[in-house]
Amino acid sequence: AHLWISIGDLRRRWASFEARHGKDPGPRWEQALEAYGKAAELQPTLDSAWMARGTLHHQRATMRESRGEDGRKDFEAAQADLDRAVAASPSTGGARLLRAQMAIDRGGTSRRRGEDPAAHYAAAEADLAAEMAEKPGHPEILRARGVLHMARSEWAAAAADLEAAEKADPRAHPYYRRMLEDARRRAAEGGK
């Protein structure tokens, strides 16, 4: 099963490379999904197979949405795969964190479509709370929760979580530093 996950990872990276260079990543995405599916068939309770599939569907959904295409089917597939990952291993591996990150992106997509994102954001909040209960102060969870607060325009709470994440992991990507600065600025301007 782990070999199939590695093959899927290779194909997923190849698809990402092709997408960055203007080529259609679709065939490689399908090959990656097929490989992850074989891993899941061999070992249905292997959370990493479901997490890999869910992550790929999430990646594909956000890429499609960024191109003006409809990514809802991929978001639905990501949800199903990540639900299976959480069921396979509810207290380890970070599947809930991945599911929360996907729900935040799905909520943002819903908002841009004029739909109510509240259910997606509530699902993300529940997963992040469960993760935080197991790993208090974990910087990745704090960053994800900060992003969720930003999506809800809760600027002071976003700044607090992103600042705590930065203190816990000062080597994080500069993107998060810019998010922290933005949240601080918006909070100072009177945001919640």
Tags for this model:
192 residues, mainly alpha
Describe the structure.
The protein has 192 residues and is mainly α. 78% of the residues lie in helices and 0% in strands. The chain contains nine helices and no strands. It has helices at 2-20, 26-42, 47-66, 72-88, 95-112, 118-134, 139-151, 155-168, 174-188. Helix 3 (47-66) packs parallel to helix 5 and helix 7 (139-151) packs antiparallel against helix 8. The mean pLDDT is 93.
What's the quick description here?
With 192 residues, this protein is an all-alpha fold.
Order of helices and strands: HHHHHHHHH
Q: What is the CA-based Rg, rounded? A: 17 Å
Largest sheet features: none
Shape: globular
- Give the class from helix and strand content and strand pairing: mainly alpha
- The average pLDDT score comes to 93
Please state roughly what percent of the residues sit in beta strands, choosing from under 5%, 5-15%, 15-25%, 25-35%, 35-45% or over 45%.
under 5%
pLDDT < 50 stretches? none
End-to-end separation: 47 Å
How many helices? The count is 9
Query: How many distinct beta strands?
Result: 0
Which range best describes the helical content: under 10%, 10-25%, 25-40%, 40-55%, 55-70% or over 70%?
Answer: over 70%
